[in-house]
Specification:
Keywords: Signal. With 166 residues, this protein is mostly helical. It has helices at 3-17, 48-58, 62-73, 104-122, 125-134, 136-142, 149-165, and strands at 21-28, 31-38. It contains seven helices and two strands, in the order H-E-E-H-H-H-H-H-H. The two termini are 33 Å apart.
């Protein structure tokens, strides 16, 4: 059995052990190194049932909801930004009327409903994320993703987390 075949077999075996562990291998002149690392993004850390339910009700991938919560509040239900955004999905007052934005259930439901509407409106995850972050008016004004560094970084980070949670 060759070293690269052995490394591949070990990597495949390790990758099936747990969805929260990823495996890799590297080949060097005549020897192979394999390793596995836990991937903290693979597992849902908090509010999993609420996220799954909202995902199913609103047709938004749970991995995208997790990614937004990770970026917006790092799963802190009491998070509040200097701009006034509140809760897990950092809802602004205009998007959280009639609910307690610090209540995880209400925040996730309202945030996912908003995201579902934006995904339908823009038919692009990146544009929906831009609207979620910078506002629909700015997406309309710039005819796409606004040139704001904060928004562009936000989209990159959320997409990275989204891929990690899949």
């Amino acid at each position: 059995m060759t070293h690269s075949f052995t490394a591949l077999a070990i990597a495949l075996m390790l990758s099936t052990l747990s969805s929260s562990v990823y495996a890799s291998a590297r080949s060097y002149d005549g020897w192979t190194s394999t390793y596995s690392r836990s991937n903290p993004l693979r597992a849902c850390p908090k509010h999993c049932e609420l996220i799954t339910t909202s995902s199913q009700v609103y047709g938004v991938p749970s991995s995208l909801i997790l990614a937004i919560i990770k970026q917006e509040s790092n799963f802190n239900a009491n998070a509040q930004s200097h701009k006034g955004a509140k809760g897990l999905m950092q809802l602004m007052d205009m998007n959280s009327t009639g609910i307690d934005p610090f209540n995880p259930k209400e925040n996730i439901e309202r945030g996912t409903a908003l995201l579902s509407r934006l995904l339908g409106q823009y038919d692009s995850i990146e544009l929906a994320l831009a609207a979620y972050n910078a506002g629909e008016g700015n997406v309309r004004k710039y005819g796409g993703i606004p040139p704001f560094k904060e928004t562009r970084n936000y989209i990159k980070k959320v997409m990275h987390y989204y891929q990690g949670y899949q």
